[in-house]
Amino acid sequence: MRLSTKGRYAVMAMADLAAHEAGARAVSLSEIARRQEISLSYLEQLFAKLRRQGLVKSVRGPGGGYRLSRPANEMRVADIILAVDEPIRATRCLPGTKGCMTASIRCVTHDLWEELGQQIHVFLSSISLADVVERRVLGRAQPCRPANEREIRPAA
Length: 156
Description:
Elements: H1 5-20, H2 29-36, H3 40-52, E1 56-59, E2 65-68, H4 77-83, H5 110-126, H6 129-133
Antiparallel strand pairs: 1-2
């Protein structure tokens, strides 16, 4: 999966914002930067994108900063990652191309990686920001049983 620091840091910062937002108080980016050990200038870039996508609201003036635009339980991790222009994909094909090989054809494993990217998107879409903050993420993925352990149904 190609998930750079941009996507990870955006989710970390949004989780911090959700955890520290209290009442009418906005959270400053400098507070988030300090707690999460992320560059303030990098956070400013990320939050400009998050604001344009309608995930956060900026508050100006004394006590200014940012607030979530809606409750954390209504915000999905996939939406945060996509808001900062981070594609959720596992193939090496570039968007708009016909394939990943030099002859512009798909490699033999393309469908495998394409499906993995879809599964990652489905998983991240099932996790809310509140789930992250309240540590309800572990155990969400269902492990697959090996093929030799799957139920074998008799032929009809």
